[in-house]
User: Which sequence fits this backbone?
């Protein structure tokens, strides 16, 4: 089989991402119970079918009355009203409030007809039959209006958005108890490399523990995806092909690490071709994370990442994550860029774009980034505190304190 | 039973939080498998027991050689070396590299003795027996040093920190496959209020759907806690007492919503007392979220929040969340405050501190907050896009664009 993929042009990370985004479609939708939908992606727009609240109610325990009856009430001119009703929450008022009357009212209870204000319990003197008020209230004071939280017809949840707690509160307040969401992507993870060793045995000299598997699985789980680990493929095309085939059959995407760099053991692209996967990108013009291989078979994505954990993860954040977000149904899949002012220098220069790991510093009203100390291809330790990747443009010289870079959250 | 709790001083949210923090101890620890520890809280410090990598290796596919042999290599002066070995990853080199020799080397493979640089495969001309180089390399160029990711003894994971994907990568690379974490708090959630209705029936006029239950459960699950919902207690002390008792027995904390405001139906504090819970705080000087009730029994927390969902959630974020984080073993439990510049005005003033819901805006290098439109006690809709709470100090006048406030992430 020819290795035509080696002739594919090497694009920037955003060009590679955009090229592949065009090939990905979201998964189907399914209904889930409302108490299972946190973090799921909404597959339809939800509008308010009712106003919330749908009746005028009291925000506190107190007395409901007509504001005109207490217009001139003060310490020197106390006004005593007759208590004609007691309205608990969940119970409809039976009496209209007439001149000189009030109703005891509890938090959340409907305000009776003709009453237009509620005074706090602690601001009155009262007995069972009467309440004395020593201040005036404005019309509508301490009254919760119809629709104060949600107007009928307002959008509660847009399509393609991760459902957060407040959205769940809104959906529940409308009585929705099954929510239409996109299916959760199932991602197969395959490791390769004869040097990679499972965790349960003492480390053989010259080998490394399989950290990328766990790192990648955790990133996928953080995105709310399911991760199915298929094992370590031996360094031969047959073995890798068999695992990719299995992964592609039973999952929505396959991610395989190692075996993608440009030596003559670039087994992964060869195995991908054997599986009938069309390779769309082989390598990306970025540092770290240059070594990678992206292919598609019947709309299904197969991703080969570097065996070096930091390279793998930076390529993952820059290229793979937006693709997986599209698959998962997100409406916004590309990270939002914003400017950060770099606090500390980074001396190395590169011909291609470089993505620098860093931490966001929000102090004194400014938006800054601390560049983490180690930026090597294999360095995981500098990702522990990294919440940002900043983009150093190609041909950019050394990064100096005070430089402004575009950055995005990871 | 006397209602002495009514005489408790009303403190600020931070004073209330700090008072209660003193009473809370973290849960016990347990070991979990490494692929289950994402988001769990580490219960011990993890140090690197080995350097990673623990041998000198190649970051790429290429040829390992002595830099002195190619010191004068150039386009005009190509240097041809004899290929004496081929080193795959996971295999130890058998040959020493002598003058005029090189070894073919694959990504991740150990660099052979005497070689001190690796040249990329693409930058050479080669056949099976020789490689020709047309450039010089520096000593140590393209060599991954011992400990480049992790020095032996370096701290990988501090105690009391939520375990993130990069930490999982570090732990795996050291071969740790069981991780010592704090137990996950189990939180009982109880709703109260005769006006509160389950989602599965058409809404009765004057009642409201039980949104707070789902909102609160989602916030707890977002914190990685388990949430056990015990149902809606009817508005009487006996019923509430029974559910609190059950909740306290089977869970690490109880949160009950509704029935805490200062009317004569303040059933929750009464029920808490009946359960033998010592009430430590009844009400907090903050807006919204003033109505609340916090008590302790044998070191176990019982939290009463408002029935108004926004009040409940703001009190939750400001007071309850740090307490629950301490229970869960977090070392840092109080939110980090940082300055935000407010973009838009908020006119209402208050005698007590006010927590404003808003969204962080990071543009042009500055750290700003958009105050969300609706800030009422019952308004959930303005929490959908809220990622911050900003603190308006007590007695502060109206908030104007450009004002600087302390804020924290929720």
Assistant:
């Amino acid at each position: 089989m020819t290795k035509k993929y080696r002739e594919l042009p090497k694009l920037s990370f955003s060009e590679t991402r955009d090229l592949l985004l065009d090939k990905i479609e979201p998964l189907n939708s399914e209904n889930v119970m409302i108490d299972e939908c946190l973090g799921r992606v909404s597959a339809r727009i939800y509008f308010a079918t009712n106003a919330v609240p749908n009746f005028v109610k009291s925000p506190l325990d107190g007395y409901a009355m007509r504001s005109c009856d207490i217009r001139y009430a003060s310490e020197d001119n106390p006004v005593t009203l007759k208590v004609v009703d007691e309205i608990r929450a969940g119970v409809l008022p039976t009496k209209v409030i007439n001149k000189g009357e009030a109703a005891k009212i509890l938090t959340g209870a409907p305000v009776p007809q003709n009453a237009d204000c509620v005074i706090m319990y602690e601001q009155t003197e009262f007995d069972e039959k009467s309440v004395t008020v020593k201040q005036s209230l404005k019309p509508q004071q301490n009254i919760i209006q119809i629709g104060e939280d949600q107007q009928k017809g307002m959008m509660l949840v847009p399509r393609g958005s991760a459902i957060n707690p407040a959205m769940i509160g809104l959906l529940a307040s409308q009585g929705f108890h099954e929510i239409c969401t996109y299916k959760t992507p199932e991602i197969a993870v395959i490791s390769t490399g004869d040097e990679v060793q499972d965790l349960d045995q003492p480390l053989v000299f010259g080998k490394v523990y399989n950290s990328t598997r766990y790192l990648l699985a955790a990133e996928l789980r953080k995105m709310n995806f399911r991760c199915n680990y298929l094992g370590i493929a031996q360094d031969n095309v047959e073995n890798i092909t068999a695992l990719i085939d299995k992964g592609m059959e039973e999952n929505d995407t396959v991610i395989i690490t190692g075996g993608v760099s440009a030596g003559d053991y670039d087994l992964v692209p060869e195995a991908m071709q054997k599986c009938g996967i069309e390779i769309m990108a082989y390598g990306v013009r970025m540092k770290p994370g240059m070594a990678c291989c992206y292919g598609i078979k019947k709309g299904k994505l197969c991703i080969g990442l570097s065996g070096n954990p930091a390279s793998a993860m930076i390529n993952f954040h820059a290229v793979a994550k937006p693709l997986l977000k599209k698959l998962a149904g997100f409406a916004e899949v590309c990270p939002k860029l914003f400017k950060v002012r770099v606090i500390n220098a980074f001396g190395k220069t590169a011909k291609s774009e470089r993505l620098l790991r860093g931490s966001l510093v929000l102090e004194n009203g400014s938006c800054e980034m601390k560049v983490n100390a180690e930026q090597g291809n294999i360095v995981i330790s500098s990702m522990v505190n990294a919440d940002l990747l900043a983009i150093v443009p190609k041909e950019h010289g050394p990064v100096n304190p005070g430089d402004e870079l575009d950055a995005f959250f990871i």
